[in-house]
Amino acid sequence: MSVSIARKTLVHEWRRFLPAIVAVGFSGVLMIVQGALLLGIIGSNALYVTQSSAQYWVGFPGTQSVDLGRPISASIATSLYMEPNISHVERFLLGSGDWRGARGGGTSINIVGIDARPRSIGLSTVVPPAMRNLLQQPGTALVDATDRHKLAIDVGDTAEVNGRRIHIVGLIEGLRGLGGVNVVTSIETARTLDNALGATDDVTYFLYTVTKFGPAEAIRERLNNPAGIPRFHVWSAPELAGMSIRYWLLESGAGIAFIFATIIAMLVGALVTSQTLMAAVAGSIPQYATLRALGVSFKGLRAIVIEQAAWVGVLGLLVGAVFSTAAALIARIYSVPFELRTSIVLAASTVVLTVAFAAGLFALRRLQHADPATLLR
Q1: Cβ burial, residue 243 (10 Å; 0-12/13-18/19+)
Q2: Which is more confident, 285 or 209?
Q3: Bridge partners (DSSP) listed for residue 205
Q4: Per-chain mean pLDDT for the chain
Q5: Distance between CA atoms of 141 and 233, rounded to whole angstroms?
Q6: How far is residue 276 CA from its own chain's centroid?
Q7: CA angle 56, 57, 59 (to 5 degrees)
Q8: What residues pair up with 111 in beta bridges, in sequence order?
Q9: What's the number of CA atoms in the CB half-sphere (13 Å) around residue 188?
Q10: Which of 99, 255, 296, 372 might form a disulfide with 249, Cβ 3.0–4.6 angstroms?
Q11: Residues 360, 306: contact at Cβ < 8 Å?
Q12: How much of the chain is in helix, strand and coil states, percent to nearest 5?
């Protein structure tokens, strides 16, 4: 009986419940979009790792984030080559420079030096073998397509980095950084552009992979526990990516501010949903009072309200899903860091539905100890 009454009430009183459905949808979109933006923005801090296929990264001990890497000696490669189960080792450089575009653009950039051989693992996801071949020419570079206007550059143009000329030979996608513009070059070109990189043979990181049956963790433990003072540290790719994200999220003021904004968005969405749904349920008090006068128990009324709240929540979340998907598509078109995960959708849905149920039951509390005859006057 409770199910049919709940559905009939929603259909017959749809004007009363429509604002509640819209409120649930708005709340869901607000939470999902904020959560996806948070994940997307903090995830961009680990792009060097996530866009590479290296299993392990070797860097300076105590490094807090991949973009804050400090130089390590090139002689460390000897320790890696001595491990028979390490199948591939390559260098990775991070530097900085002052950019002057062909049409007047000027900004600070991150110089990313990678191995330009076709089968290299550094930034292998965003730099295909064909573009790596182009980087083998001295003085060439790649930039992310979304940074093209900021750099005032296009494919075929020439720019200056730290006063040295550089030729743009291609555009890539997926390396739009959080802390600045990334310009990708070969190892050799990077050393010519940044004097700090060219002064020594030091590197920022060594990247390596392990053979199929190699004891990967045993190798890492052995490398991380040298006999003397440690000159380097080895992280697995997921470990370094997670460490970089946590550093930006918890240690930087921007990360804390964004978390605070996300929490505020969730509270606002929950408040709007609860108030709107409470008003809708409260407006149906005379109908509920009639049911009580007819002998329906308070437990039965609670079941009706829960059913109504469930339908309002589901319909609202469907509306929210449509707008959230549209937001994701727009973000993709404009290359906005937006990571729409299933976990974010489920978390937002759980919060919204819980608030909807609680709001409906809270509005119904006035019936529990009230005289139905009084409510019908």
Answers
A1: middle
A2: 209
A3: 92
A4: 84
A5: 30
A6: 31
A7: 150
A8: 95, 183
A9: 9
A10: 255
A11: yes
A12: 55, 15, 25
State the DSSP string of 358-374: HHHHHHHGGGTTS-HHH
CB 186 within 8 A of CB 198: no
**3-state DSSP assignment of residue 15:** helix
Question: First-to-last CA distance in the chain?
Answer: 26
Per-residue pLDDT tens over the stretch 77-116: 999 999 999 989 999 999 999 998 877 767 899 999 999 9
Q: Do residues 176 and 335 lie in contact, with contact meaning Cβ atoms separated by under 8 Å?
A: yes
Residue 160's φ and ψ, nearest 5 degrees, are -125, 135
One-letter amino acid identity for 268?
V
| DSSP classification of residue 68 | G
Residues 41, 258 contacting (CB under 8 angstroms): yes
Q: Are 153 and 139 in contact (CB under 8 A)?
A: no
Phi, psi (deg, nearest 5) at residue 56: -135, 145
Distance CA 13, CA 10 (A): 5
Distances (CA, A) of 126 to 110, 306, 336, 339, 366: 16, 49, 17, 17, 60
What is the identity of the amino acid at 193?
Answer: L
What is d(CA 284, CA 278) in angstroms, rounded to the nearest whole number? 10
User: Which residue intervals of 155-252 are DSSP H helices?
Assistant: 187-193, 195-198, 216-223, 237-246
pTM comes to 0.78
Q: How far apart are CA 182 and CA 165, in angstroms?
A: 17
Determine the pLDDT at residue 2.
45
> Nearest to residue 208, comparing CAs of 181, 179, 240, 178?
240
Q: Is 123 helix (H, G, I), strand (E, B) or coil?
A: coil
Beta carbons of 123 and 112 less than 8 angstroms apart: yes
Give the three-class secondary structure for 57. Answer: strand
Tokens describing residue 142:
């790649």
